[in-house]
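Notes for week 9. Today we move from apo structures to complexes. The key idea is that a small molecule is not decoration. When we ask for a structure prediction with pyridoxal-5'-phosphate present, the ligand SMILES becomes part of the input, just like the chain. The input block below holds both the sequence and the ligand string. Read it once before you look at the output, and try to guess where the molecule might sit.
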Amino acid sequence: MYQSSKSLFERAQQSIPGGVNSPVRAFKSVGGTPVFIKSAKGAYMVDEDGNQYIDYINSWGPMVLGHAYEPVVKAIQAKVALGTSFGAPTELEIEIAELIKSMVPNVDLIRMVNSGTEACMSAVRLARGYTGRNKIIKFEGCYHGHADCFLVKAGSGVATFGIQHVPGVTAAVANDTLTCAYNDLNAVKALFANNKEEIAAIIIEPVAGNMGCIPPAEGFLEGLRSLCTEMGSLLIFDEVMTGFRLAKGGAQERLKIDADLVCYGKVIGAGMPVGAFGGRKEIMEHIAPLGNVYQAGTLSGNPLAMIAGYTLLHELKTNTDRFSSIEKKADYLKDGLIKVLDASGFPYRINHLGSMLSIHFSENDITDFEAAASANNARFNQFFHAMLKRGIYLPPSAFETWFISDALSYEDLDKTIEAAKEALAEIE
Ligand SMILES: *Cc1c(COP(=O)(O)O)cnc(C)c1O
């Protein structure tokens, strides 16, 4: 069934570390051979052996309207013949910046980069430059990309592989990153009390998605907002996952909280390498060439990446029914999964907000990383494989969120629920 993938994986390991260019793709946590993808269209991916999958990763988020979305493909095709990169400004960069500003009212200025990692790394540098303070607070299990300062209790791939201390990150850098449990406002207050006037920023996933999906508890983000205002620290929302997915204005709009700086990635590039960070003018003006906080990129604002992102964002802005359509599908899937999970007798929790969803096999509510880590993740791994062989492609780790796309049909969702029923009957 996976013969070509198996031999490609063998071959890949001869020239690429672990055979992959990003760790979670290696299936190390769930075991087995990663499937090599040949092509994708709409809700489906096809592997090198010709197996077809209903896709719930959607490139880890970007393909919110499905793969090879026709308007994006056409826009890239039209643009590519005009040159692939100039290293000089283009009108299209203004257009996408203006479009994002019209979707996210508290962004006055926005800078394009090439990945979510770069966006978060640059936002933290800016927060430090702006406040003149060194320390940041992040939450256990939140992932903000692989910059040094974030590789402390970092969720996602780091959690999947059980990495505690990341070699290569110096103690000096790690010590400037303070951590506490997600949803624990009192712990944040204690960090502020013990580090008076030292904290440049809190960075947070407003809906956590890198320890499975964990929505914020009632009042938690509001509490962070007022603490930051009171203490002169910046609140950075890492909306790399939630941005342009939970609403056209992202989690800020959906949860009605204004951050000081916002980071984007994933959906913003429609599958091309794009990230961005933005915020209020008086903060963003500290970035070079206006200010002294240096940040740059040879390929930033790349025309192919910009036209892909612009085309997708424009559709999401003008056709806001898209969000309700995706959410109805997510609700439908959730309800169906609840039925088959109830019938299975396994203890479980489903966390869900908008088009983000995840299952933990646990008797406890999953509100932070400790709870996510204490779930029966070996059972999830069996579930993953039982679903994969039925043509359902889930994220290959219990610490990752399922992404629902608008390309999914109700028939696809029914197939998924039926597969889950069979899978649950097969696993232990
Ligand atoms: C994926 C992700 C990142 C990192 O983005 P890359 O494009 O992989 O560098 C940062 N923050 C969050 C919340 C993410 O989900």
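DSSP finds 15 helices and 14 strands in the chain.
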